[in-house]
Amino acid sequence: MDQVLGWTATTLFTICYIPQMMKTYRTKTVDGLSFRLLLISFIANIVALCYATLIKQPPLQIKYTLALVLLGGCIYLYLKVYFLKA
After folding, report:
1. Gap between the Cα atoms of 1 and 44, Å rounded
2. CATH architecture classification, 2-85
3. pTM of model > 0.85
C-alpha cells in the first residue's frame, strides 16, 4: 500500500506543473505567475533530489527529477514569453 501511495504522490506532484505550462504557452502571458516561485521551487527540488538520493528512495528521485524537467520548462516558457513581451 505504501508503494501505491508513493507512486500516486509522485505522479500527482509531477503533473501539477503541466497546466501552468499549457496556460502560459496558450495565452502567451506570464501575468500572475511569479518567477521567484518557479526559481525557489526549482532550487527546492534540487535539494530534495539530493536528499532522496542519499536515502535511496526511487519514487522520490523520479518525482524530483521529473519536477526539475517540468519546472525547467516552466522557467523557459516564462523567460521566453517575458522577453518577447518586453
Report:
1. 27
2. Up-down Bundle (1.20)
3. no
